[in-house]
Amino acid sequence: KYPLAYLRYTETEKILVVINPCKQNVSFTCDYKIQETIYQFGNEIHQGGNMISIDGQSAGFFKVEYSKKVK
Fold first, then answer.
1. Could you report how far apart the first and last alpha carbons of the chain are, in Å?
2. Which residues contact 11 (CB under 8 A, 6 or more apart)?
3. Which three-class secondary structure string do you get for 32-70?
């Protein structure tokens, strides 16, 4: 089931990797707030509250911060 989303982190930063190889748009819940786009392929990724939506055949790397209450 897509998207593939995982967190890479060090002591000083967290990077959220999101990959959606299928044709359909998909969404998932996430407790991290996107702060900065590092790399993106395909269409933009959108965040509304704690939901992230990604269009089909898109991917991105994003610097994030943890937030239980994402705005």
1. 26
2. none
3. EEEEEEEEEECCCEEEECCEEEECCCEEEEEEEEECCCC
Q: Is the pTM of this model over 0.90?
A: no
- Separation of alpha carbons 9 and 65, rounded Å: 11
**In 3D, which of 7, 9, 13, 16 has the Cα closest to residue 54?**
16
**Which amino acid does the sequence have at 17?**
V
Average pLDDT by stretches of 10, the chain with 71 residues: 94 95 96 96 94 97 79 50
Instruction: Show the tokens assigned to 42.
Output: 């395909």
Residue written as tokens 């990797």?
A: 17
d(CA 40, CA 50): 20
Beta-carbon count within 10 A of 23 CB: 8
